[in-house]
Specification:
- The structure holds two protein chains of two kinds.
- In chain A, 0% of the residues lie in helices and 45% in strands.
- By secondary structure, chain A is mainly beta.
- In chain A, strands 2, 4, 5, 8, 9 and 10 form a six-stranded mixed beta sheet that branches. Chain A has a four-stranded antiparallel beta sheet with strand order 1-3-7-6, with no helix packed on it.
- Chain A starts with a strand and ends with a strand.
- Chain B is mostly beta strands.
- Chain B contains no helices and eleven strands.
- In chain B, the strands form two sheets. In chain B, strands 2, 4, 5, 9, 10 and 11 form a six-stranded mixed beta sheet that branches. In chain B, strands 1-3-8-7-6 form a five-stranded antiparallel beta sheet, with no helix packed on it.
- The termini of chain B are far apart.
- Classes of the chains: A mainly beta, B mainly beta.
Chain lengths: 115, 109
């Protein structure tokens, strides 16, 4: 079956512009996660969705970042007024259920470059 | 703050040799997972070891867990060029995985 897909694969934008990143999780997976990975670094948790519950936004670095998940499936991560420090690979993952017993399936990521 | 920390940060070995990577974590866990990442893109789940397990095997992978020392190790035997990647351990905090900084493994032909 299809895995997690993300679009676009690469995005170059000018400082100050808004960007939207999309994630299509595996069908039937209730949990969806967004991570950010700067060059040569580990993964930084951003936000987590579980079913219809309120998302865990504790990892969002500033109020310029927001995300939504429509219909319990597709998710978009929006970055407003992008800054150069926002340049990173943004990874989306989904799992059948939330929590530690379930492996996360990752998409290929979106490489964002802010010039 | 990161829960897991991998050691070493980088490892370079010859093809055919064994590679060992270590992970330390800070709080109590129910399980620990290892992931592999190629070329800075998506991660692939390798193995999950539960807190009541001490060792687990999957193909050429062997994972150990020492809960008393809050540490885990990942051993790749008979390494191949295709094993070149970054390897991350992950533990759970508040229902979300927390990843370490990773070990960059390079297999030289």
């Amino acid at each position: 079956g299809a895995g997690v897909s993300q679009s676009p694969s690469n995005k170059v934008t000018e400082k100050g512009k808004d960007v939207e990143l999309r994630c299509d999780p595996i069908s039937g997976h209730t949990a969806l996660y967004w991570y950010r990975q700067s060059l040569g670094q580990g993964l930084e948790f951003l936000i987590y969705f579980q079913g219809n519950s309120a998302p865990d936004k504790s990892g969002l670095p500033s109020d310029r970042f927001s995300a939504e998940r429509t219909g319990g499936s597709v998710s978009t991560l929006t970055i407003q007024r992008t800054q150069q420090e926002d340049s990173a690979v943004y990874l989306c993952a989904s799992s059948l259920e939330p929590g530690e017993s379930y492996e996360q399936y990752f998409g290929p990521g979106t490489r964002l470059t802010v010039t | 703050s990161q829960q897991g920390e991998e050691d070493p940060q980088a490892l370079s070995i010859q093809e055919g040799e064994n590679a060992t990577m270590n992970c330390s974590y800070k709080t109590s866990i129910n399980n620990l997972q290892w992931y592999r990442q190629n070329s800075g893109r998506g991660l692939v789940h390798l193995i999950l070891i539960r807190s009541n397990e001490r060792e687990k095997h999957s193909g050429r992978l062997r994972v150990t867990l020492d809960t008393s020392k809050k540490s885990s190790s990942l051993l790749i035997t008979a390494s191949r060029a295709a094993d070149t990647a970054s390897y991350f351990c992950a533990t759970v905090g508040a229902q979300k995985l927390v990843f370490g900084q990773g070990t960059r493994l390079t297999i030289n032909p």
